[in-house]
Amino acid sequence: MNKDETILIVGLGLMGGSYARGLTKAGFNVIALDKNKESIDYALANGIIKEGTSESTEEFLSKADYVIITLYPTEIVKWIENNQDKLKGNAIITDICGVKACIVDKAQSILRKDLELISTHPMAGRELSGVKNSTESIFEGANYLIVKTDLNTERGVSFAEEIAKTLKFKTISTVSVSEHDEMIAYLSQLTHCIAISLMNGNDNDELCRFTGDSFRDLTRIANINENLWPELFIDNKEKLIESIDVFVKELNELKDDIRSDDYDALKKKMISSTERRKKFNKIKDAD
Amino acid sequence: MNKDETILIVGLGLMGGSYARGLTKAGFNVIALDKNKESIDYALANGIIKEGTSESTEEFLSKADYVIITLYPTEIVKWIENNQDKLKGNAIITDICGVKACIVDKAQSILRKDLELISTHPMAGRELSGVKNSTESIFEGANYLIVKTDLNTERGVSFAEEIAKTLKFKTISTVSVSEHDEMIAYLSQLTHCIAISLMNGNDNDELCRFTGDSFRDLTRIANINENLWPELFIDNKEKLIESIDVFVKELNELKDDIRSDDYDALKKKMISSTERRKKFNKIKDAD
Asked: Among A50, A87, B117, B232, which residue is least crowded by beta carbons within 10 Å?
């Protein structure tokens, strides 16, 4: 990648906007496509992108050397199907979707032979949506996953790595589609299921007067985009259900220790959780 | 309360130290008792307290007009039993313990007739321990519970309120012992059980390279004091087990929606959790 080349963002919401801001600040030539004209106008007015449109014309799409698709899961393959003929020869495409098995194989199998899809997953976000709430600061110190298949080339992987470094991600890891979906089921999807259930499990309106930071921490992501996440859960249902079951089993064991007044077993579980948690601090988390 | 009066902190750890710092800064005459002489020396050297000792002498304890006990749950009643004879007439005592049924009734029943115990629960803390990590900033904007019984007087309640206001707590609520323990089972104890189980449920060492903020948020309190919390869980076991069961039922319902591809049910649960979560922001959380 060099700074004369053009990066097209497809879908200018929270994530697309955050990518656009970071890449524009780094000096790249960033353009965007979004069906919502207001988002494009906002991004142009605020110098987040150089050019933008709501029209998927060949004239516009063929400008891009690289394409970052930040659409909802169900829209990604459709977009590629409908628009790949308008793309420049040898363009590299990435998606940033939170589930992979349901996207990557399909997309790679229908792709024009000279194009490459290298799938990625930035482990970052915030509980807000839209380009107006976007900020490249969400990427700093976060993890970045490159989901590589047999069809990916060194050029594709290098592109993904360069994007990650430019946006200041901390750790870049390369994984298979199946490894990705399994890890994400436990780390991201299960945690969202827990937050939703914790928030919905008690309808006492007085609770907020009694709460401390622990409940706030565990329910922050109960503020969730209800248009995106049902898709993500269902698209990865087998691995997610397995993760929920593993977690519930663990929680019920803890309950049994409490019921039988087993101080030592509880203490052991707490020592283990404290020890393991230390590895998960971000650089900016650490004391 | 006036600034000539003396407040005794019993137990100079994270919480005791934070109380001492805040009350000293507000101009009160703060003294402390802790069996660990190093903690006392540190607090004296750093101006956190005016006087301190490791010896429970009548000469020292009788100086206090108010006593704030920040000991572990099992030590509170014992301390009162062993030391109340050395306290000044009409002194007011508070504890800050996270469970109440197992403490308050017992303590109030054995208390010298001229003394008063007004039980309180500051909903604040941090994942560190010891006076060196104490800071009064943990109280700012947090909730404060006064656990009132029939034996409490207006003077006792006013004392508790004044402490809360001095330390800049946001919302002060008065509750019964039983209400307290029920709320705390769900809001605080269940969340700690979830964090521990989430952290212990997957022993893949690679997980930390894949994690995002959601997993970090949900496991922050998996870093837990293993000497304190087994007591808290077991002392409130009936209500805590009920809370775990309610939560697991809710989570399993969500799982069923995922299994049956029920987008609408999932969406409805997410709209509800998002709506409810809004009430739980701290002032300093709000965007």
From this structure: A50
